[in-house]
Model the fold of this input.
Amino acid sequence: MRQLEQWITGIIDPYYLRIIILLGINIIMAMGLNITTGVTGQLSMGHAGFMSLGAYTSAIVTLKLGAPFWAALLAGAAVAAFFGFIIGLPALRLEGDYLAIVTIGFAEIVRVFFLNFEPGGKAVGLSGIPQQTSFTLVMITTIVVIFFTQRLLSSRIGKAMYAIRENEIAAEACGINTTHLKVLSFVLGAFLGGLGGALYAHYMYYISPQDFDFMRSIEILNMVVLGGLGSIPGAILGATILTILPEMLRVVAEYRMLFYGALLVILMIFRPNGLLGNIRLYDLLKPKREREVKPCQS
Amino acid sequence: MKRKTARNWALVLCLIMLVALVPGCNDTKAPAPAAETIKLGFLGAKTVNNANYGIPGEKGMKMAIEEVNAKGGVLGKKLEGIYEDNKGDSREIANIATKYATVDKVSAMIGDPATGLTKIAADIAQKNQVVIFSAGATGTGVVEIGDFVFRNTLLDKFAAPSVVDWMINTKGWKNIAIITSMNNGYSTALTPVFKTAIEEKGGKIVLEESINDKETDFTAQVTKLKQANPQVLVFTGYYTEAALIMLEAQKQGLDIVMVGGDGLYGEDLKKLGGTAVEEKVIFYAGFSADQPSPETDAFIKAYRAKYNEDPDMFSAQYYDAVMIIAKAMEAANSSDPKVFKTELAKLKDYPGVSGNTTFLPDREPLKSPVFLLTVKGDKFPALLEKVPTSAPQQ
Amino acid sequence: MLWQQLLNGLTLGSTYALIALGYTMVYGIVQLINFAHGEIYMVGAFVGLFLVITWDVNLGIAMVGAMAVCMVLGVLVERIAYRPLRGKSSRLSPLISALGASIFLSTLMALIAGVNTRRYPAVVDLSSYSLGPIQVSSMQVVILLVSAGLMIGLQFLVRRTRIGKAMRACSQDLDAAALMGINVNRVISYTFAIGSALAAAGGVMVGVYYNAVWPYMGTMAGLKAFAAAVLGGIGSIPGAMLGGLTLGIMEIMGVAYISSSFKDAIAFGILILVLILRPQGILGEKKNKKV
Done:
């Protein structure tokens, strides 16, 4: 693995390598949110909160307890998943925009907590986190995450989740345990969010509460929606575009964000259901099969 | 038909990835043109967060580069500035610092005004052996990152105690309220410095409140402040919020003096605050546009002529950073960061436009004296007093 | 101090309410979270500022001017960013074009006006009067009166006029309304226009009262207003007013009696609690779910 890493860093320029690594982390987080929002249809606008919990937990575990890297990653993901469970509970009673505001509120509370959290350095943030996230690790994790998400979505559980998105009452009537699956979708989404956060913290060297604000949540949500809700290749494409576009737009200097905003509008006008809205991974792999999932219309 | 769409989009996906990667290969493999210029990278925000510190910084840096080039450049080569906008965002600054170090191959990067962002860039600069010269990071743990990391700012740990001493012993203000801006790293780092100093000099903290940067409603805090009735208010954040707090105090009929750090040094303090801040806000800085040294005076005149506005602390510090780096390159007879960084560390009593600067053995800057400034009439800032820095033993 | 803080909360709350009304009206008809609404509010504040600085007009004219400009802008945003998506996409897709529009507008404003915080020149006397234990500033009175007036006017419009009737019909069932001969596109344009005008009025008043106008002010205000609209029960006009006032008072009381450093956490914490107890918001209607 080390040799592979050396080979890769040898041929790719560090600037592009960095963007690819950030892309991998973004894909992992988009995969997580895709399970919660894209597949199960539970609108979560506070994914940055999970990311923040994962990042801070792993960083503190590494810095203060001196734990090995893999333990830090797991700890970050586990803490996030636990809070995913907590946030999944109100999801049983709330839906749509009411749920959205609860998740926004949750992410804001997490942010304010870390702004007041002495061991996390308050607004100054935590620095000196060892840079252990490597290219190979991110790529392997991304592939593993994509593989497992794909397995999950084509399993009974995944199909039941799609059913909840399409029509919750009908799904329940078909004998699907919607309570379990809704909470599970939050736990899984939060787990991947936390994992992404932990990888991020161990790549960036420094984290602060402002890195995980409302705009970050929206950015992750946009990756999922832009790509196409519930679609794995969609989430990958969405994450890719939203990671690379701002870098490519550097040429237009101060008009960069102007172009970025306009491009988002234009992309949506031409592909209202997201770029790969109707397409699932095995639609690409096995072209003969008819597509089964319709875009979420509710 | 449906299958085709799927395939088309898969193609688009691959294309996008390719487009992203291709320039990467080009840049690394194309023969680099012989370095005819010495490149300097600007770190700072031009939009979104902290842009009001980055923009004047960029102006100061541009002006310095023009001046150096007008005199023939450094080592016979022209300086070239590269100005990316990091939006005050961690990922952006990390991407930009990496781009500067590896794609643009700069000799030094200058910035960022914020401590946290500087640390990210400093880590990258250190690993790539490029000099980073921060013109604004005042928090701890910056130069400790490594020997390529420098900064030129007035350090709070030297300045704040002397100001607290002036507050308590000269002015006799003992009952003190402190307001911190919670989402501002500068502010949360400065508050403990003030608190320690206040405790040491025998002051009493009657109220501690907090706000957030970019908020505008401070009514509740000011109402509480009025209730606690302190003799002086210490605010550790930036000038925009300082002006808004003072305006709210004026509205609620609270007559109080605000003392703060060099974060309050911005012309907007006066533009926004108007009569509410006049002679009521006192802050310290290592730079004063009022009663300046000859160097500073020349800088201010040139800056006004070029941009038709007054320079602030950041424009002065970015300007100085370029000049100091150019000087070190000349002295080392090299623009290689590995070589000129040793010359840079030797800087002593440099008469910059942002005050006299000496680098201590640990590369921390020492600037002296501290100017106590205020807003008076049309003048901003107006010099109130000069107090000596409580400098460590050298 | 309690009364003073209550007044502070009411003032802050009524500005939230004005922005929240726009959210709730649009949501009631097209079930869309208009995330560019915060930016409309920001543009309103800037247009007012521009009018006051350039032509030295008084507060009323500045407000009317800003409302007019934002009406057009709101309709434009709907035309360009939302209408092409309507009926063709999932409910979340317009979120992206909304975000695109909001990034576009705030960046454009930053390029035009600069990123520094600006203030209104003294258009109204900002001095305050002692009223028993509390200090009331004249602008506070203006904010409370104008907000109340606009909200009453809006109620009248929605309850008593033809277009209001059409709006209510559309909010019940868009397709059925279209079948009844209502020009749905026009009703939606009207809704955006009215919502944007209210946000612009809020923007001008906030700009004057808090002395601060800057290009990125819309994001946080929009978020708070969205929270207020949901708290009150999204889709309900009295709900948005109540939600805005409640949120404003909650925030101020959080600072006054609990802790200012946890301000937003307290406000959102209470919000979450309220929603768990009453999932449809304070005045929201509970809709029966159908298959």
Remarks:
- The CA atoms of residues 261 and 299 of chain B lie 23 Å apart.
